[in-house]
Amino acid sequence: MVSVTRAMVTGLMGVVVVWLGGCVAAGFLAAAIPPTPVAAAYKGLAGQSVGVMVWTDRSVRIDYPLIQLDVANIVQANLAAAQKDKKDDLKLTTFPVEPRSIVRFQRENPGLEARPITEVAGELGVSRLIYIEITDFQTRPTAELELFRGTVTGSVRVVEVDANGAGRIGFQEDKITVTFPKKGPPEGVLNSSDVRMYQGVLSEFATQVAWRFFTHTPPDEVGNASNRR
Questions:
Q1: pTM
Q2: Residue 85, pLDDT score
Q3: How far apart are CA 33 and CA 66, in angstroms?
């Protein structure tokens, strides 16, 4: 039989206490580390007049006639909210043209789609146009029509317009893909609706597009920092 002495027990307890103390300390240190802000991908909106234009395929517009206006409104609302938070990336930025006016301009001029966006931007009365193309939109996965999952894939460009009305691409990012809900089975969820998927995925997509233009801390990062224990 192995004889366990008091010294051995005391030594083992000391190791356990040190190990647990280290884990607790590490947890507190991790929780104390603030999340790292993400810098703006494009920093050229400060002091500029800005408009937001959204393009979608005709078939998508037939099923969701307000999709262009909804996305543009959310993007511009996020930018305006960030400006109120005194983000330097949006200092003195103005929004002289409402999204609804730009959507009306698009509908009244169907031939715009055949023209370069660098040319069209000069007709909107802004010095920076955020141009968003939605190339894929779904509220249900193709293979499981009884389930729900919102998906948006798109791109964003910024057209910089000079004093003469000539435009050039100052920023471009393609293949921005967002799904809703972000957590859950990849094949989709039950007990939801097309309306909920529409609202949720477009809000997430438009918010992520707006993040390209000001320094921000994504909510997931804030949550991760507070839960590192």
A1: 0.81
A2: 86
A3: 42
Q: What is the pLDDT of residue 128?
A: 98
What is the DSSP track for 57-123? -HHHHHH-TTHHHHHHHHHHHHHHHHHHTT-GGGTT-B--S-HHHHHHHHHH-GGGGGS-HHHHGGG
| Confidence at residue 147, expressed as pLDDT on a 0 to 100 scale | 92
| Contact (Cβ atoms closer than 8 angstroms) between residue 198 and residue 69 | no
What local confidence, expressed as pLDDT, does residue 32 receive? 61
Two tokens, residue 9: 């027990």
| pLDDT recorded at residue 219 | 78
Residue 46 CB neighbours (<10 A)? 17
Q: Nearest to residue 158, comparing CAs of 39, 49, 38?
A: 49
- Indicate the length of the chain as a whole number: 229
